[in-house]
Amino acid sequence: MSDNMKKFGWPLLIIAVGVIIAFFLIISRPTARTQDTPVVKPLVRYEAARPREVTVTIQAQGTVTPLTQGPLISEVNGRIIKTAPEFAAGGYFEKGQTMLWIDPAEYQLAREQARLQVAQAELALAREQQEADIAREEWQKVGRGEPDSLVLRLPQLKQARAALEAARAALRLAELNLSRTAVKAPYACRMRDKQAALGQVITRGTPLATIYAIDYAEVRLPLTDEQLAFIDIPLNYHGDIRGEHQPAVTIRASFAGREYQWPARLIRIEGEIDPMTRMIFAVARIRRPFDRHPGSDNPPLTVGMFVDADITGKTLKNVFVVDENAVHNRNRLWVIDGQNRLRIRPVTIVRREPGRVIISSGLNPGEKICLTPLNTVVDGMSVLLAESTTPEREQSHE
């Protein structure tokens, strides 16, 4: 027995001592203190909703084209004997200024021949008038009754007068053709290209150059239906927009790193939708765009230039302009109520544009709109308010 006790007693004793020590360690360990975790309220910036009037500006792009453009056509035959120094692409001409000269010798001879024919016709008429007077006097001396028209030489007199008118018409035509040898600008214009040169023999109808008037330029501006809806067009609109109803347009273009502006007016809406883009074109007209105006450093516009246009549109009343980052899920705002709790509010957006949106309903004046992006938002969650932000957004852009 003693051997068995020695064999199993000591291990059991060691185990028992270990259990006792473990028990005392467990019951004597310090108790952990539990604390409630405080709720952290996010600090947010806000903007106070303020109704206002907003004038919408519609943005579009287009290419500058002249209002009047066409070929300069020769009206006579001949050889070009002289051209003006400005007769080249880009050259300016005032109305009536001579652009080139055609050899006038043939037309000077034709004029002299026409003058001779007029003189001969005048002489023939004078002789016939004298003969008619003599015939009338003789009839009055010996004749009885009404004289015959042939006796009084009335048909001959009528023929002589007609011959004189024809000779004078031929003289006017000869003088007209002679004047046409000096080809003049039909209006104040600029040359787009040159199609004839010094020494060239041309015929009537030959194109000499392509010119365009410098009084007005136009820009065709493609617009969507949505953009067109914000342009203030009169109710009696029939294509052309008249007088004071023409919306103002600002044309913008860049030269050498600087942006320049030209005032314009929207003068008409074209009556056809582009079948490829499904857009309709509005036409803006610029007055004297190719001149340098006194007191202005604007360079002349160039035909074919691509420009930006800002069209002054309708004025929207009692609307709210909100930063685009404050809008969530397309039409939801986070509105802060009187207890500083976030409320998810649907609103009606009438217009979206870069940087902001225009809201027509769903907000009340003075309500606080949360501007701070939050990762998690629960309707009714509490927030802390930082400094308010109320930027000025009086104009709208698209």
From TrEMBL:
InterPro entries cross-referenced by the UniProt entry: RND_pump_MFP
Keywords assigned by UniProt, alphabetized: Coiled coil
GO molecular function: efflux transmembrane transporter activity
Tree of life domain: Bacteria
Coiled coil: 109-177
Coiled coil keyword on record: yes
A GO cellular component entry from the record: efflux pump complex
Family label: Belongs to the membrane fusion protein (MFP) (TC 8.A.1) family.
Protein name according to UniProt: Efflux RND transporter periplasmic adaptor subunit
Species this chain originates from: Caldithrix abyssi
